């Protein structure tokens, strides 16, 4: 047999999906491992989505034609209006927006448009696991940048290393898994870092509407970053439609041109029928109110979870400011596990996650997949159904191991 791609062959399965698959196959397990929101899409829109966007006429007009490279003009205009309404940002729908096959494709074509094989791309520890996989898959080199918990965490990056090797820096705010939201001082530090190495910044802001502790600011709100930043967003999390696979990129025109070429070569175009649904979600007059109600629900769950789990031995190096996850340290719980459980796994997070899955029937994700510095953490979601979240908390706090 001819040789296959050994880089991809060496990659492990996507952790949260692998764990979630186990949970979905066993109804006795409470699945708090994967960010598939129980909420959404807005109930008031369901009839229109079913009867108009998913109707025969919409299907035929979508299925019989390729979508244009940059996506439907109407949806790009709706994205531009999103930034104007929520952040007072002027974004040109003709030149500065590309509609993508979810936020994941947007990250990939952003890297393809701004870097070449062998370039170093910076990611912090912790960070969302997908970034390192995408960087490596595309033949770029991961530059891991430690980020200890503190106020203004990204300011500390300026003191750690000379960034001359870095061609791009990926920033996730609000962040998966920690819930960290960058401050104004953080964004200034990111700008300084990017300027020093003449690097691009890729801001993944898919949790932008879930900023329950500190206000979210798109990178373009920092003027120094506007000409060197690509912003990535999607409908999956905020509108609760991860299977829709519609996202977008906002970037300077030259980057949109290059990313559009990569998008065309790899994807051809997104599903126009699903673009109609995405546009309806953005243009809904009640969208901001509905999004705010979900943000408030997540805030309430986060507060309840922090208090309840802390009393049971979970600890926090960072209190979440946004996103849809809790990310506690489990060092104390690890010390209470039977010796065979502690010795069986490489890290405290892996041991505790395995124990919780086997003995408590709760699926969470070990922190090691997000970085070595958080290998003693686990991640659990705040977006499950009310029944699953309540039962999950009850099992996680059930008493001694």
From TrEMBL:
Documented EC number(s): 2.6.1.-
GO biological process entries: amino acid metabolic process
Keyword Transferase recorded: yes
Gene Ontology molecular functions: pyridoxal phosphate binding; transaminase activity
Keywords: Aminotransferase, Pyridoxal phosphate, Transferase
Origin superkingdom: Bacteria
Coiled coil spans: none
Keyword Kinase: no
Residue span, Aminotransferase class I/classII large domain: 29-395
Cofactor(s) this protein requires: pyridoxal 5'-phosphate
Residue ranges crossing the lipid bilayer per the database entry: none
PANTHER family xrefs: ASPARTATE AMINOTRANSFERASE
Similarity comment: Belongs to the class-I pyridoxal-phosphate-dependent aminotransferase family.
Protein known as: Aminotransferase
């Amino acid at each position: 047999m001819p040789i296959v791609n050994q880089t991809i062959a060496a990659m492990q399965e996507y952790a949260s999906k692998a764990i979630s698959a186990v949970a979905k196959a066993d109804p006795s397990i409470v699945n708090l491992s994967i960010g598939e929101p129980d909420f959404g899409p807005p109930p008031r829109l369901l009839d229109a989505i079913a009867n108009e966007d998913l109707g025969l006429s919409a299907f035929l007009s979508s299925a019989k034609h390729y979508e244009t490279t940059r996506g439907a003009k109407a949806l790009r205009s709706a994205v531009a209006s999103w930034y104007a309404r929520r952040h007072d940002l002027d974004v040109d729908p003709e030149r500065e927006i590309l509609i993508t096959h979810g936020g994941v494709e947007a990250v990939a074509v952003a890297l393809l448009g701004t870097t070449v094989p062998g370039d170093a791309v910076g990611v912090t520890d912790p960070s969302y696991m997908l970034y390192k996989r995408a960087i490596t898959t595309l033949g770029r080199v991961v530059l891991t940048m430690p980020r200890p918990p503190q106020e203004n965490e990204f300011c500390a990056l300026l003191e750690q290393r000379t960034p001359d090797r870095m061609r791009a820096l990926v920033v996730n705010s609000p962040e998966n898994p920690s819930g960290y939201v960058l401050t104004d001082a953080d964004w200034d530090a990111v700008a300084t870092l990017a300027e020093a190495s003449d690097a691009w910044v890729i801001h993944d802001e898919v949790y932008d509407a879930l900023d329950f502790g500190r206000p979210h600011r798109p990178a373009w709100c920092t003027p120094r970053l506007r000409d060197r930043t690509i912003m990535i967003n999607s409908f999956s999390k905020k509108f609760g439609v991860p299977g829709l696979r519609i996202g977008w990129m906002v970037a300077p025109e030259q980057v949109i041109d290059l990313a559009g070429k990569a998008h065309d070569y790899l994807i051809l175009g997104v599903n126009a029928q699903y673009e109609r649904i995405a546009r309806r979600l953005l243009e809904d007059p009640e969208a901001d109110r509905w999004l705010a109600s979900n943000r408030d629900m997540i805030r309430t769950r986060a507060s309840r979870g922090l208090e309840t789990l802390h009393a049971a031995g979970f600890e926090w190096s960072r209190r979440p400011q946004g996103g849809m996850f809790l990310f506690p340290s489990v060092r104390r719980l690890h010390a209470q596990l039977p010796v065979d459980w502690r010795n069986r796994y490489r890290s405290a997070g892996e041991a505790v996650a395995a124990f919780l899955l086997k003995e408590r029937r709760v699926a969470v994700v070990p922190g090691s997949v997000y970085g070595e510095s958080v290998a003693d953490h686990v991640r659990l979601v705040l977006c499950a159904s009310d029944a699953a979240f309540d039962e999950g908390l009850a099992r996680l706090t059930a008493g001694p191991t």
